[in-house]
């Protein structure tokens, strides 16, 4: 993992665990396993989870200051397609929020904030969905080693 003094920099380190099985780990040691197996999330599903999770955090942080939700679920969906250039991508991304709160003053107050919070997350606060919507380049470099030699 690349260590950097830039506080805006985000990074993970991905390792192969087995064929089609990978673990992504951040600098703090948190990890998630994913890949191409029935018991794992796929990379596309991780993208959906990242979009849903980012907005969920935005909404949950504010509403839970008022009261704990009785239900908090976000569905994320999209269609994986092959575009006109033969490349794979996902389109028609959509989030569905399913939230519930107690029928008391705090619950009604929290419920009254949800529409505005979801809109703020979409328009301003969710780094993940805003990055996807605005697009950004993905650069890469490659280092390959054969035997004990250098790359």
Write the layout of secondary structure elements.
Blueprint: E1 13-18, E2 21-25, E3 31-35, H1 43-66, E4 71-82, E5 88-100, H2 105-125, H3 127-134
Antiparallel strand pairs: 1-2, 2-3, 4-5
Helix pairs in contact: 1-2
Describe this entry's structure for a reader.
With 151 residues, this protein is of the alpha+beta class. 35% of the residues lie in helices and 27% in strands. It is built from three helices and five strands, in the order E-E-E-H-E-E-H-H. The chain has helices at 43-66, 105-125, 127-134; strands spanning 13-18, 21-25, 31-35, 71-82, 88-100. Strand 2 and strand 3 (31-35) form a beta hairpin. Helix 1 crosses helix 2. The longest helix has 24 residues, at 43-66. The model has no long low-confidence stretch (mean pLDDT 94).
In one word, what is the shape?
A: elongated
Number of domains: 2
List SSEs in N-to-C order: EEEHEEHH
Strand order of the largest sheet: 1-2-3
Percent helix range: 25-40%
Strands, total number: 5
CATH topology of the largest domain: GMP Synthetase, Chain A, domain 3
Number of helices: 3
Strand content: 25-35%
Distance between the termini: 17 Å
CATH architecture of the largest domain: 2-Layer Sandwich
Query: So what's the CATH class of the largest domain?
Result: Alpha Beta
- Structural class comes to alpha+beta
- Radius of gyration, in Å, reads 19 Å
Average residue-wise pLDDT: 94
Low-confidence stretches: none
């Amino acid at each position: 993992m690349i260590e950097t003094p830039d506080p805006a920099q985000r990074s993970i380190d991905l390792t192969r665990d087995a064929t089609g099985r990978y673990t992504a780990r951040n600098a703090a040691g948190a990890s998630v396993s994913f890949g191409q197996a029935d018991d794992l999330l796929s990379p596309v599903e991780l993208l959906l989870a990242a979009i849903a999770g980012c907005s969920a955090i935005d909404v949950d942080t504010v509403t839970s200051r008022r009261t704990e939700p009785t239900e908090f679920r976000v569905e994320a969906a999209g269609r994986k397609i092959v575009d006109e250039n033969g490349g794979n991508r996902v389109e028609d991304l959509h989030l569905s929020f399913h939230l519930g709160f107690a029928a008391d003053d705090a619950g009604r107050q929290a419920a009254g904030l949800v529409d505005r919070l979801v809109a703020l997350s979409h328009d301003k606060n969710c780094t993940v969905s805003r990055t996807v919507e605005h697009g950004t380049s993905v650069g890469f470099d490659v280092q390959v080693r054969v035997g004990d030699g250098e790359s």
